[in-house]
Structures are given as C-alpha cells and as structure tokens.
Design goal:
This protein is an alpha+beta fold. Among the domains are: 160 residues, Jelly Rolls, CATH 2.60.120.260; 55 residues, Maltose phosphorylase, domain 3 (Sandwich). The strands form three sheets. Strands 1, 2, 3, 4, 5, 6, 7, 8 and 9 form a nine-stranded antiparallel β-sheet that branches. Strands 10-13-14-15 form a four-stranded antiparallel β-sheet. The longest helix is centred in the middle third of the chain and has 26 residues.
C-alpha cells in the first residue's frame, strides 16, 4: 500500500522518530550461585545491536537453576519508549521456542527494582512499567512504552539463554533546538538544557505533562511548557493541536478539568499569539474564547468572591486553602486581563468591556495571600500586590523552601519583577540544581529541597543509611514511585533564563518589536539565541571591568529593538 493510499484511508502518521540506544552502565546483577547465574553481563554494553546473529561472542548468559537471574541496566538519561530484546538461543529441560522475561522500567534505579504496590506505591497506572513478556528464541522483539532510564530484566523460565542485546527504543520528535542559552555558570547552562529536554520528551502525540504519568494534555501544565517551547523550538504545531484537543473535548459550559485550568488555556492562547503573531489561528478561537469568558464571568459573585468547584493552583498549595482562594482570585484577574486583550484583537468589544468591568470589581476585595508563595507570585503578576513587598515578605524568605516545580516559574517571574535576579538565580541553583545533584536528567513533578538531606542519588541502589528519595517522598497523586521524574511543568527556569537573564521579550505580537534587557546579577557573561517568526535573535552580554554591561545583538529584518 502506498503512502497516498494510507492517507486516503485516514490513517494517522506518527510524527515521531525512533532510535536505538545501547545501555550506558551495568548497575547490578543477581548473585551467582547454585540456583542462579549471570555470566558476562558487561557484554550488554558492547553494542551488539538488535539484529540477532548466531555469532554473538559478547552475549550475556542468564542461567535459571531454581531462581530467576536478573540484570539492572542504566541507559544514561531519561527516555520515552521501550526496549528491544535480542536472544541468540536457549537451553531448557523441555523444548521451547520462546521464554518468559519480566521487564521492570524505572525513572530511578530503585523504581526498576521495586514490586508493584506496597508502601513505595509502584504502579502500572497510565502505562505498564512492570510486565511479563514472551520473547522468541533466535529472534528479537520490542516491549513497553513509558518514561524510563533504568530497566531490570529477570529470566523466569528454568534453563538458560544467551542474551545478545538490550537496547532502548527511543521515541521522540526530531526537532532543532533553535533557542540557546550559555553563561559563565555551567550549572545554569545545565539547568536550561535539562528544562528544554524535559519538555522535548513530553512533545509526543500531543503535549503531555509526563511521559510515565499522566501522559495527558493538561492546560495548566501546558503554560510553562509552552513558554519553554517558544524559547527553545519556536512556533510548533503541537501547541495549537494540543490546545484544540482540549477545546474540542471540553464543550462549553464544561470547563477543562477545572475552572482554573480553563483560565490557563486562555493565558496560553494570549502568550502564544504574543510570541508568534499567528492571527489566523487566534481567529479560529473567537467563539470559544468569548463563550469561555462569559462562563468565567458568571462564576464571580456580586461582592467579588469567586464561586467555583475544585479551586486549584498546584498540589503543594492545597494544604493552604486560604492561599488557594487568593491565588484563584489572582488567576481570574489574569484571565480577565488576557481575555480583554484577546477580545479587542478579535473585534469583540462588548466582551472586552465585560472583562474590564469584572477585573475592576475583583480589585475591590483582594484576599490575603496567607503566606502562600504561589498566591503571592500570582498576585504580583496580576498587579494585585507590590512586587518588592511580595518578594521581601513572602517569596524570598527561606527560598527555595516552599517552592514547587510548577509554580516555581511564577515565583521566579514575580521575583524578577521585584528586581531580585540574584536571589532568583540562587534559588534556581539550589532547587532545580538540587534535582541534578541527585542524579536527575529531567525535572520532576514535585521536589522539596528538604528531601536532599540524607538522600541517595536516583541512579544508584540506595545504600544503608541513605534515603530512597523517589520511593520515600511525595504526596497527593504522586506518592512514592508513582511520582513522575519527567514533568514538563517543571521546565520554568529554561523560559525564565531566556526571558529575564538573556533578556529577550516581545513588546508587540510576533516579535515585530522586541525589548533586550540584560540582567546578569553575579554572572560575568551570557549569550544565546531566541527563535522568532522572522528568524533567530542572537544576543551576548558581557560585564566590563568597570561593572557596566556591554551588549551585542543581531536581529532579523523586520524586528525593531527597544533596549533597556
């Protein structure tokens, strides 16, 4: 069947690429003795490939004599996909053409060693990461679709096999990293790159929140992800496709999972247009935007209080309901601000006026932030709280204690509006750098710097006296090993470093006018690129001997630069 015939039948074509990756490291094997034996496990690191051959001198021998032999492999970095297993041959008490192998994927080494259920909350939710499969002898097969870095294999049938290779099947979108960021601090460079890679892995069929779980389109999660996509990849079809996916499955008066996430959908629409200036796409949203705004306006009582089911910011904020009330109030203000601007662009003046009227009413009775860093950050960005006061009294004290991976982006933005770039950089180093210190190659669904005390790295088996950080911590929906270690909403520093340190931000929709404002704090230099509809902006800032900042930049034709 030709490609044209396939398309005519309406079959979907996968936009992703597949690649095969050899293991980088052998972490562990089961003990060798009378009941179980693993011979030459290092042979799995030699690049034997996935094509089975009778001549496989580096094959690993797994011998089951009453107890399952096992190996634990590290592929060196978080991946999305599965594994390809190639077996040369086997010898068994009774003739066999296939053999049973248990496969356990893990985002941490300890997760790959875990059993389903129990106190560590290892699960097969959303996608199977622990399964028993049949693998043909003198053949190879692919198994699994999840987020992982580590794989444990156990031979379950009594007898022995020559295991030729175990390769990761890496499934991803093959895209150019157009944006870039480099500075005098290698840790910040690594953090920028890790945030970019975290979102890249979640750009699968649609823009997901996580590649292990939830593997779903959540519009709240999308906002920091989309900011990262704009800074790294530029305009990409996955964003409008994902936005339309949620719109079409949330017909009004239904909200997108919860009212606050429908507000995030509005904010993504606003920011996406401001970054890329795609007026044709924005016009497609006219009816839904105006209808959604009317629904949101109807949720505000005459006294300015908001009456919605399941008020939600992020999971860590849930323990402070007064702060959640304040944060939701600020989100409604942000939604009305964005809604008014979008409606004016769409020629919907009446709805724009309704948004402006409601915003003024919401400003008449501002709830107290209750010392919630999430709420104070949103109140700052909504213009409900003075940035310096919010930073001094709520966000900066004990930072990054109280940070969260999702709302950390907005805390950083609020601190930048207060002029505290130095404090923001210190928090980035301690918080997101803390995950890297524990062995992360992507950023996590949740993190608390207090977890670092006594914690083992996620790329090692937890030694005596140390804490398994993945299996021991987490709350709400992410307890223990259910916790996602690759979550796109945690990528905020990537967008923030490009926006506030490199200092590139659009003044007009689509970057027809751009402001370049360096904020180096303790850095000696910073340079990078930013993708726009006109092409790449190149910027370098360098501190001179007298402390002044020297800036060089090149911008494509069609862009006007505003400095400072």
């Amino acid at each position: 069947m030709s490609l044209e015939e396939i398309r005519a039948r309406g079959l979907a074509i996968d936009p992703r690429t597949r690649a095969y990756l050899e293991p980088a490291r052998l972490i562990w094997t089961s003990g060798c003795g009378e009941t179980s034996e693993v011979v030459n496990p290092e042979g799995l690191l030699t690049g034997n490939g996935g094509q089975v051959t009778k001549e496989a001198p580096n094959a690993c021998l797994l011998r089951h004599k009453g107890e399952a032999p096992a190996v634990l492999l590290d592929f060196g970095t978080e991946l999305h996909g599965g594994i390809r297993i190639a077996i040369v041959e086997g010898r068994f008490p009774k003739p066999k053409r296939s053999v049973r192998i248990r496969i356990r994927f893990g985002e941490s080494a300890m997760e790959a060693m875990s059993e389903l259920g129990g106190q560590t909350n290892a699960t097969n939710d959303h996608v199977s990461r622990d399964s028993i499969v049949d693998v043909g002898l003198l053949g190879g097969a692919e198994f699994g679709t999840t987020g992982f870095r580590f794989v444990r294999l156990d031979l379950l049938d009594e007898g022995e096999i020559e295991l030729q290779s175990v390769q990761a099947v890496f499934v991803y979108r093959d895209m150019e990293y157009k944006g870039s960021f480099r500075c005098s601090d290698p840790l910040l460079n690594r953090i920028w790159e890790t945030g970019a890679y975290t979102v890249h892995l979640n750009m699968q069929d649609y823009l997901w929140d996580g590649i292990k779980r939830d593997r779903m389109v959540w519009t709240g999660d999308m906002h920091p992800e989309v900011a990262t996509i704009s800074a790294v990849f530029g305009e990409h079809e996955i964003v409008p496709n994902s936005m339309d996916f949620k719109r079409d499955r949330s017909p009004l008066p239904m909200f997108m999972d919860m009212p606050t996430y429908s507000i995030w959908w509005l904010l993504v629409q606003h920011d996406w247009y401001w970054q890329h200036g795609n007026e044709a796409y924005l016009l497609e949203q006219r009816d839904y935007i105006t209808g959604l705004l009317r629904e949101l306006i109807g949720k505000v009582e005459p006294d300015g209080t908001i009456n919605v089911y399941r008020p939600f910011l992020d999971w860590p904020a849930s323990s402070n309901p007064t702060g959640v009330t304040a944060g939701v109030h600020a989100l409604f203000v942000l939604g009305m601000q964005a809604g008014a601007r979008l409606c004016l662009l769409l020629g919907e003046e009446e709805t724009a006026v309704s948004c402006e009227v409601l915003e003024r009413r919401l400003r008449e009775n501002i709830p107290h932030h209750a010392d919630s860093k999430q709420a104070a950050a949103l109140q700052t960005l909504a213009g409900l709280m003075d940035p310096v006061e919010a930073n001094r009294d709520v966000i900066a004290p004990n930072a990054p204690s109280g940070y969260s991976t999702f709302y950390g982006y907005y805390m950083l933005r609020a601190r930048a509006e207060a002029g505290d770039i130095a404090g923001s950089l210190d928090s980035i180093r301690a918080y997101w750098g803390g995950m890297l210190e524990l062995g992360a190659t992507t950023f996590w669904e949740d993190f608390d710097v207090a977890w670092m005390e006594g914690a083992a790295r996620i790329d090692e088996l937890t030694p005596p006296g140390k804490i398994d950080v993945h299996g021991s911590y987490g709350g709400y929906c992410y307890k223990g090993y259910r916790h996602s270690l690759c979550h796109g909403w945690a990528s905020g520093p990537t967008a923030w470093l490009s926006e506030y340190v490199l200092g590139i931000r659009p003044v007009e929709p689509g970057f027809s006018t751009v402001r370049i404002r360096p904020n180096l704090a303790d850095l000696e230099w910073v340079e990078g690129t930013y993708p726009t509809p006109y092409g790449l902006i190149h910027v370098r800032h360098e501190r001179a001997a007298d402390g002044s900042i020297h800036t060089e930049y090149t911008v494509p034709a069609g862009i006007t630069v505003v400095k400072g």
